User: Fold this.
Amino acid sequence: MSWDSSHVRRLLSRWDYPAEAVDTLGRAMESAMGHPRTRALLDGASEAYGAGAELDMEGVLAQISDMAADCGEHPFTMQLLPYLRMLESAERRYAAVGISQEIYEATFADLLCKARECRRVYGVWGSFVASWFTGFFELKRFALGRLQFEFSSFEADEPLPRGERVINVHIPARTARTHTSALLASSVTRMKKRRLLSVIPGCCTRCALSWEIAPGYVNSPRTTSCCTP
Assistant:
């Protein structure tokens, strides 16, 4: 498979990436694939993920950042490339466990969201929080509508017992704060209907709510850290 700018353009076409972003990522991919060390890193990560192996993504991100100068690209741009290489395998992995195309596309739209944020804050198409994406690829975090959910253990002392299995709710920066409670209720209903809860066994349907929905939980370190944008 040829990983050139045309492949990147086709890959990203289902999401609303600006032309400038597509051009930047396509150019960066071609540059990376033209450098033996960077190509070996991307090929290795992509093949390992496709085979179901566990990846040290922090290590991959650190290595590709160190290679950015050789490729003539910004480290934030380079950090998106391993995830782009894994997108097609992620789609197959989602389908294999019965997760719909709709949920797959909504979930990985967050790469675009973070790329826009990076462009707005740093003037660079890429991501300054790339490690956040790993949860999507590991099937630990999903988007339903405009909210994101991840399976976790409750880490505060109240209102639930410490260690209880919960669903953390994340409100992405792109989400308007109006009617958030209604969005939450709608998303949980869709999660149950689509049997997404069955992907990871032993998960309850109680939620560690965002402090924006339940201000009384603002002192809970887990709900504050996981649910703020």
Observations:
- Confidence is low (pLDDT under 50) at residues 193-211, 217-229.
- Strands lie at 141-144, 147-153, 165-170, 207-208.
- Residues 145 and 186 are 9 Å apart (CA to CA).
